[in-house]
Amino acid sequence: MHAHALLLHGATGDGLFEAAQAITQAWLCEATAPGAARPCGQCAACHLVAGGMHPDLHRLLPEDLRLQLGVLQAAEGEGGDADGNTKGKRKPSRQIRIDDVRAAIDWVATTSSRGRAKVVLIHPAETMNLQSANALLKTLEEPPRGARLLLTAAEPERLLPTVRSRCQVLRLPSPSADVARQWLQQRGLAQPDVLLAASSGRPLDALAMAAAGVDAERWAGLPAAVLQRQVAWLAGWSLPRVLDALQKLCHDGLALLAGGSPRFFPASCLKRPATVQALAAWSRDLAQVARRIDHPWNEGLLLDALLQRAQAAWAGQGPLSDTLQP
Ligand SMILES: [Zn+2]
Q: pTM of the full predicted structure?
C-alpha cells in the first residue's frame, strides 16, 4: 500500500497507538532480504523507532498524552527550543496545537536522514483543533516527496471532512476473544474473560484496569458491594472509573429487565432490579454526573451519594429528587 496519507480507524483499547507505531516502523524498516517481513524488528531503523530516536519519524501527540505514553518530542529533532520555553508553566495541553502542526509541516519538507521516508504520526487526529487541522490540509493533499502521514482516530466522524477525504482509511480490526484472552493470560491476568467483558472486549483497557487494581474478583464483586453501599470496595478507584462501572451496572440491570443477558458483569453476580422506570431515571442521573465529571467534587461525599442512588434505583425507588451538586 502506498497511500501518502493513511487514516487508521480503531479503538484505543484495541491498541490503536501501538498499531500506528508498528505501521510507521514498517514504513521506515530497512530490511533488505527479498520478501522480508516489515517491520523486521532487527535492523537499525527498527531499533531507532522502538527507542523513539528515529530521525525520520515525527510523532505529533497532545502534550498530556505524550507525557502519559512517555513519547518524547525533543529526541525527534524538531523545535525543541520552542517547546522548552513553555514547559512547566501550564497544564499539559489536550490538543494538538497549530504551532506543533506547523513545526511538523516544516520538518517533513526537509531531506530524509536515512533515505527511506519522512513519517509524521498524528495521534489521535481528533485532538487537532480546527486551526491545526486546517493548517495540515495542504500537506495532506500534496505531501512533499518522500513524506508519509499516518493519522489515527477512534471517531473519524469528528474529523474535518476535508481531512478525512484526503486520507486512505484503514480499519484496525478488534482482536478475537481468543486472541485477546491469550494475550492477557500471557501477561499474568487471572480470569481474563471477566475483565474483557468489563472493558467491552478491549484487551488494552482490560490490562489497564488490572494495573489500576481492578482485578476480576473486585469487578465481579462490585454489584453486591454497590447495592450494600460498601464505599470501601471502590477504594482507590478514580471517579471516572467509578462512574463508568456504575453506568455499566445500570446497563446490565436494564438488560436483565428486558430479558437479555448482561454484557459487562457475570450474570451470576447480578440480582434482578425492581423496575425499569427507576433504572432509567438512574441512568439519566449518572449521565448528568458524567457530563460534569471535571467539576471539583468532594469525592467521598459524591461516592456515597452515588451508591445510595444505586441502591435506591435497584430497589425500584426514585429518582431521588435532589440533583447532585459539586
Ligand atoms: Zn527493520
A: 0.73
